[in-house]
Structure formats: C-alpha cells, structure tokens
Design a protein that fits this description.
Length: 367
C-alpha cells in the first residue's frame, strides 16, 4: 500500500434554502462548516488477516552469570597476577590479588598473645576460687575474656586469609579495576568475572503479547553486528511485574555459548516461536495513535470522525500492520494516518477507502 497522504482541509459552504425566485434582502447568510476532505489513500477499510506465529524481541546480550570480586579488607595492593588481564580465562580459586599483610600479621600475633594471657588468667582465677580467695564472679569474667580472645584470634586469621583475593568461579575477566601499589578499601570492586558459556538476551514484551510467551519456548537469535550470526535460545524467565518506566514485561532468554562465538554486550534480535496463528482485524501501524489515556484509531462513521479506543496485539513492521485485539471489527473505515486535524466528532467527506495490507512476517514484542 502506498504511504497515506496528509489529510486535506476543505471548506464546504452550506446552501441557503430558497424561499422564492430571488433571495430576500437582509436574509441571514449560511455559515461555512469546515470538514476534512479525505482522498482514497487517506482511509483504510479494516479486514481480517493473520500474522505469522512468533513474537519478535530485541535486547542486549549479557552473561548469564557474572560476579564482582571485591576486596574484603582495606590496604595496599602488593601484587596482581600478571596474567589477570581483560578477556583472560581464570579458574575457580585462582589467586588474582595479594594485599600487604604486614598489619594483619601483627594483628594475628597480638591476638595470639592475648589468647595465651587469657588462658593463663582463667587458670589462675580457677585456682584462687577453689582456695576460696576470690568470688565465682572472677572466674566467670575470666572465662568471658577467654572467649573474646578466641574470637579476636579467629577474626585475625580470617583477615589474613582475606588479604589473598581469589576468583569465586571459572570464567572470563570482563572488568579490571586494580593495579599493584594502589590502596583499596573494604568493599571496593577489583574485578568482574563472567561465565560466558551461557548468555542471556534481556528483552521486553507488551502485556497484550504475554499470553503467547511461556518459559521453555524456543527463540531464534540473530546478531546483526556479528555478520547476522545466528543462535538458538530458550525463554528462561518471565517477570511478573511490569517496568514502571515502560509498562512492558521483562523476558530473559538463555542462550548456550560454549564455543564462545557470541559476544556479550551486543544488541541482538530474537523471535519467540509461539506456534500460534489466528485471524484478527489488522490495521496500519500509522493509523494507531498512542495517547496518555490509551491507544486509539479514528473511525469514519456517518460523515464524522469517531475516536475509538483499541487494544493492539502483535506488530508486523515489514508489512506495516498491527493486530487489533478489541475495539475494532472488520469492515470499519478508519483514517490511515491521523494528524493533528483529526479529532472526535470532526465532519468529513470521504472518497472510497483502500484495503489494509496483508501480513507475512512475525510481530515485534516491544512498544
């Protein structure tokens, strides 16, 4: 179908009713009424059609598993594994960073000495209590001091061990934020390690398409930026709360990547293969207007425009049509591309309408 023309504005002058061969002097003149003059391409007659099964989605590929490696201590970086560069494969428990342990070795030695002193003090207090020289409270206090010393020693050992930073999983270093000699603080991110053997396509679909999307469905993936590289994934997770910003539903698609051919961070397209097909009214994408109160079309009815709320379904961007799930039936005549002149109740004079094009390709899941 050719692109619809902009609506043309014509002035139709109403004729005065004749009361004789000549108009009476002083008779009121007829008022001009503005109407939208519609050409053949300005309107479309809605007809039923089918959009091939499947919901198209777009999104970014991200690692299915990625972990930020943080320093658990504050201190100076003594060394960084020379092989720990971006894109390098690392093994679980591989040492990546060593912090200066001088302070933590001193804390461990002090905690050990404190524990030894607490043990001696408890033994002495027990002997004195047995001899009746001190009250039982002194023994209780000495025992509490011993327990505290043991806890301090355990903490010192943990801190000393934490000075050695290791990878929590086997994967690829995708971020590096540390160099030898730098000072780091507890909680600071040093590396990000990602398991690239499995990626996820993070996408969104409209709520009206959600009944056609299910966990476990096959998804065909295409990466345009990698020479139209193709892959196959599976719907892994469907969020049950719409985004507050877009009002769309998040869908996560898991894609095996054992050979490492797919590159994380790239934009990808997917087709969720629903296997369903049904005949529904189809309207041109340009005929649908999205307003704050909802989605509407303008129906040509009885020489006037009628603003009609509709619920849309899948889109076929290649054919330029969208499914109408409710609000519009086959045979209705609507504006093909409403502009700012289109308003509810506006008078129109219309030429015969064209027919909406048939659909061939799967629909898009986004808004």
């Amino acid at each position: 179908m050719k692109p619809p023309r902009p609506l043309r504005l014509a002035v139709l002058v109403a004729l005065a009713v004749a009361h004789g061969a000549c108009a009476r002097k002083g008779a009121p003149k007829a008022e001009a009424v503005e109407a939208l003059l519609l050409g053949a391409r300005d309107t479309v007659t809605i007809s039923a059609g089918t959009i091939d099964p499947g919901v198209r989605v777009t999104g970014t590929l991200v690692p299915a598993i990625q972990v930020e490696i943080k320093s658990r201590l504050s201190g100076r970086v003594e060394s960084v594994d020379p092989s720990a560069a971006l894109g390098v494969h690392v093994e679980k428990d591989q040492v990546l960073v060593r912090l200066d342990v001088t302070t933590y070795q001193a804390q461990l030695a002090a905690a050990g000495a404190h524990l030894a002193a607490a043990e001696r003090d408890l033994a002495a207090q027990q002997m004195l209590f047995a001899a009746g020289a001190v009250a039982e409270k002194e023994v209780v206090n000495a025992r509490a001091s011993l327990e505290a010393a043991r806890a301090d020693l355990a903490t010192a050992r943990v801190n000393l061990a934490a000075a050695v930073v290791t990878s929590p999983l086997t994967g690829t270093l995708t971020k590096k934020k540390v160099e030898p000699g730098e000072s780091v603080t507890a909680g600071q991110v040093l590396f990000t390690v990602s398991d690239l053997s499995s990626l996820e396509l993070v996408a969104q679909v409209r709520p009206s398409l959600l009944p056609r999307v299910h966990e476990g469905q096959r998804v065909s993936i295409v990466l345009e930026l990698q020479g139209r590289l193709k892959a196959v994934g599976t719907v892994f997770q469907i969020e049950r709360v719409a985004s507050a910003d877009t009002r769309l539903i998040g869908v996560r698609i898991r894609i095996p990547n054992r050979d490492g051919a797919l590159v994380g961070g790239l934009f990808a397209q997917g087709l969720i293969e629903s296997g369903e097909s049904r005949a529904l009214p189809l309207a041109p994408l340009m005929s649908v207007r999205k307003e704050p109160s909802g989605t509407v079309v303008f129906v040509v009815d009885g020489g006037k425009l009628r603003r009609q709320p509709v619920t849309t379904g899948q889109e076929d961007t290649s054919a330029g049509v969208v499914e109408i799930l409710s609000g519009l039936s086959s045979g209705a005549v609507i504006l093909a591309a409403p502009n700012e002149q289109a308003r509810d109740g506006a008078p129109v004079t219309a030429a015969p309408a064209a027919k909406a094009p048939a659909a061939k390709a799967p629909a898009t899941g986004g808004a």
